[in-house]
Design goal:
The complex is a heterodimer of chains A (51) and B (121).
Chain A: E1 16-28, E2 31-40, H1 45-49
Antiparallel strand pairs in A: 1-2
Chain B: E1 13-20, E2 34-39, H1 44-62, E3 77-80, E4 88-89, H2 96-103, E5 110-115
Parallel strand pairs in B: 1-5
Antiparallel strand pairs in B: 1-2, 3-4, 3-5
Classes of the chains: A mainly beta (51), B alpha+beta (121).
């Protein structure tokens, strides 16, 4: 499956809180990339323990 | 005027789950699991450096006064698990795009593993 720009579309993470994103710039050699870190969504424990 | 404007090709983004390697025997794996997004041109070395920087910052937050330079493990090794139970050590020069093409055949976000231990020979 490919997007409009011809690049392969890759699956996205689920169950993460996208509002929790923090960014870090990492440089190796001459290449700098941005790495975004997400926190997982809080699990609803009440529904899991309600047996 | 005949000038040619060079435009860098678009770089796709890759989202991945980053877990501690089972050989590190970490009990609370969820606490050490990272959910990250970066560009497909990021290399395995970028991930290892990111991990070192991130964990050093977290240690510094927990223990104010410590230097990020005193954070111990600087050389994380990165693995991928192409099939259940197998972990393949990745070369630092590989980009995530190459890792995805070469090792990851399933239609779900990339899963990678990190370890502070030296790789088994």
């Amino acid at each position: 499956e490919h997007g409009v720009n011809g690049l392969k579309k890759l699956p996205r993470l689920k169950n993460i809180d996208r509002s929790s994103a923090t960014h870090m710039e990492v440089t190796v050699g001459a290449v700098t990339v941005i790495i975004t870190d997400y926190k997982p969504k809080e699990r609803n424990l009440s529904s899991e323990t309600n047996n | 005027t005949g000038t040619v404007e060079l435009v860098a090709p678009p770089v796709s983004e890759i989202e991945l789950v980053f877990k501690p390697h089972p050989m590190d025997e970490i009990e609370d794996i969820a606490a050490y699991t990272r959910y990250i997004k970066t560009t497909a041109n990021a290399s395995v070395d970028h991930l290892a450096k990111y991990l070192y920087m991130r964990l050093a910052l977290e240690r510094q937050a927990r223990e104010p006064g410590t230097s990020t330079e005193d954070s111990g493990d600087k050389n994380y090794t990165i693995y991928i698990s192409p099939t259940p139970g197998s972990h393949v050590l990745l070369s630092g020069a590989l980009t995530l795009e190459q890792v995805n093409e070469k090792y990851w055949k399933v239609n779900k976000p990339l899963e990678m593993f990190y370890s502070s231990k030296k790789p088994l020979q």
